[in-house]
Every structure is written in structure tokens, then in C-alpha cells.
Amino acid sequence: MDIYLISFVVVGIAALAMAWLPTWFKEVPISYAMLFVVLGFLLYKVPIGLPEPDPLRKNEFALRLSELCVIITLMGTGIKINRRFSLFSWQVPLRLVSWTMLLCIGALAWMAWWWLGFPVASAVLLAAALAPTDPVLASDVQVGPPSEEVEDATRFALTAEAGLNDGMAFPFTWLAIALATHGLAPEDWLVHWLSYDLLYRIVVGVGAGYLLGKVLEYLLFKLPKRGKFPETQDGFVAVSSTLLVYGLTEMVHGYGFIAVFVTGLTLKHYEEDHSYHREMHDFTDQIERLLVVIVLILLGGSISRGLLDALTLEGAMVGIGFLLVVRPLAGYIGLLGVPVKTREKWAISFFGIRGIGSVFYLAFALGEADFANPEEIWAVAGFTILLSVFLHGVLATPIMQYLDRVRQPGDFIDPAKAALEMSDDNKGEPGEKPQA
């Protein structure tokens, strides 16, 4: 049979199922990600000639597919966040992408160096790739479509973190590349890394995202009101804007991940109740689902074809320790002093979901420099992603349902009054009356 047509049939059936699966699984402790990884694993056990899924041998394909999936998701993530940006109301995600992420990178790099015997460059790469919370696979613990609901602390924090830290982890991927290329002598790379990879690229990413968001805002919302420019309500504008913003930002060497997310936020905060935001979000969500189906099937297929063959017991323990100990503790430490209920802090800290962004970072870095132990790096990362898919997939629904059940109606956060409705551990959650 023609491999091309077989691939069409497999992806078509899987994508068609995505029209119903999120609804079916909404109330049960199963995620569609779990289902498609298992499906991919089983399909690649059958000799029907499906395309090679191994990211080690198909690095460029893994890179571009994961990149496209992440940037489209980031645009949708930005569009669906209701809360306007301020240092106070965004303090939880800002802490997660700074203190928490740094603690995660430091702890995981040390574990990979000390316990697995990785060279420093490989240890830093593994840590940088696994540090970000994935915007693609974390939808079960994120806010809903634009303006559909107000935002509780947990969903807002995890949504904003996922939007921000895929870009914020990029400097540490470049740090790993610098270490692999120049060695441990800081005089060869430190100044360039601090000034260019850390400062310049982040500033340009934020600036380009905001400026291009304002240009798009003018074209989509303001000009049509003057009657001299046709109005559009086509959702595909979100995807075309994603490609435009990402491409232009990367051309001037800024972080396109950050730019796309900031553009989504900028568009959302012009007339926040505008129906067009929902159209744009829904279209990105539909494209994202199609891409996610392909990526998850290929992830399952790569595991079936030996992605985890290089995994050792020590490597598995590092992945388990990272998900169950390092991320929750780092998250909670990063949130010390933040006026959010303790149970919300632990939920935010626990749901640091690994996923497609990690695949991108590994594929990118391994294409830029020669790292020692690439098979073992992929094996540990693949195992950690697989464990996250099943662990968080099983626990997301019951934990979020529990938080919703014990949360009082006044605990939901009105974005316009977020600063006033947040309370400390003793007073309870935002808007909750003190307990006697």
C-alpha cells in the first residue's frame, strides 16, 4: 500500500476523533494525549510502512513540526488570557518563569551531571529542554476560550507560565550550545551569551511581539471602524499572523516564541469582549489539534521504534524525581509569599507538564552543536515526557475538579480586579471569606 495514503488515513481518523475526544474525556481521568501516544506505539508495531518517527534520525522533521505546533499554540494561549498585564496581577507566572525555572534547570542539570555522568553541556541541554511547562499538552489545566469564563488562580498561572516560559527557556538552550561549542572557559562565550542570547533576544522578542500586535490591532479593529478598510472575521488571520510575527522576529534574531505570545495578548486586550477573539482562538485551536495528533502519534511511534532503548534505571529515576520532587518543590519555593491559597500553590507547582516544547529544544540544539550522549538525552527526555503525559493526564481532571468544588464563587478572579481579589493563606483564596 502507498505509505502516503496510509498516513493520510491514519491522521484523518485520529484528527476526526479529536472533534469529540476533548468533550468525552472532560469528566474522566484520561487525556487524549494518552490515547494518541498509545495509538502511535501500537501502529508502529504493525509493519504497514509508516514514516520513520525517530527524532535522532529525522531531526529536521522533528524540529519543524514541533516548532509549528508550539507557535500556533502560543498565539491561541495569548488570545485566551483575559487578565491584563501588570507586575502584581501577573506575579505568579512571572515567578514561575524566573525563580522556579532557574531552580528546575539548576537541579536537573546537577542531577544529569552528578548522577548520570553527563558532560556539563549535555546536562544543561537536558535541563533547559525539560524546564518549560508545555503550552500544547497543558490544555486540561488552562483557562478556557476567550472571555468564556473568569480565571481562577491555578488555571491563569499555568496558562500564562506556559505562554511565557517556552521563550524564557531558550537562553539556556543557547547556553548549552555555547558550552558544547566553546567548552567551560567563560571568556569564550559568557559576554556574548549574557548580552545577546539572554538580553537582546528577549527584549527584541517582547518588543517585536508588542509592536506587531499593535499593527495587527490597527488593521483588524481600528481601520474598519473608519469605514475605509474592509472588516474581517476570518479565524485564519490568527495563524497567518502567527507565521508573520514569528518569521519577522526570528529574522532580527529575537525569540519568536515570546513574540507570538505577546502578540496574542496584545490582540486580546483590545476590546476584550470582541467576538473576533473567539474566532481567532478557535481556528488556532483546530489547527493545533491536527498538529498535536501527528506529533503524539509520532512520539508513540518513536518509543515503539526504540527512543527509550538508551534509558537506564538512573535516567528513569532522574525523570521521576524531576516530575515528582524537583518541579513541585521549585514551584512552591518560587511562590513563597504570593497571596494564593496553599492548595492552589501545590496544584500550580505540580502541573509543570512536559511536552512538545521539549522536543523542539532538543532537536534545535542537537542540530546546532555536537553533544555527548545524544541517545541518552533523548531517552531521558522521552521518558519524562511520556511519564508526564500519563501522570498529569490521569490527575489533571480530578485535581482540577476538586479545586473547583472547594472554591467559592467569589474565588474566581475578575481580571479587572485581580489585585483586590487575591488573598493570603490565612484569609483563604481570592474573594473567600475568612474561616471561623
Automatic annotation (TrEMBL):
Q: Give the top-rank taxon of the lineage listed in the UniProt record for this protein.
A: Bacteria
What is the organism of origin for this protein? Rufibacter latericius
Annotated GO molecular function terms are: antiporter activity
Instruction: Tell whether Transmembrane helix is among the UniProt keywords.
Output: yes
Q: Among its keywords, does the record have Ion transport?
A: yes
Specify the protein name. Answer: Sodium:proton antiporter
Q: Which GO terms describe its cellular component?
A: plasma membrane
Q: Which keywords label this protein?
A: Antiport, Ion transport, Membrane, Transmembrane, Transmembrane helix, Transport
- What is the membrane topology here? Multi-pass membrane protein
Phylogenetic placement of the source organism: Bacteria, Pseudomonadati, Bacteroidota, Cytophagia, Cytophagales
The residues covered by the Cation/H+ exchanger transmembrane domain are: 16-401
InterPro entries cross-referenced by the UniProt entry = Cation/H_exchanger_TM (IPR006153)
Q: Where are the transmembrane segments?
A: 6-25, 32-50, 62-82, 94-116, 168-186, 198-221, 290-308, 320-339, 346-365, 377-397
Which BP terms does GO give this entry? proton transmembrane transport
> Subcellular location, in the record's words?
Cell membrane
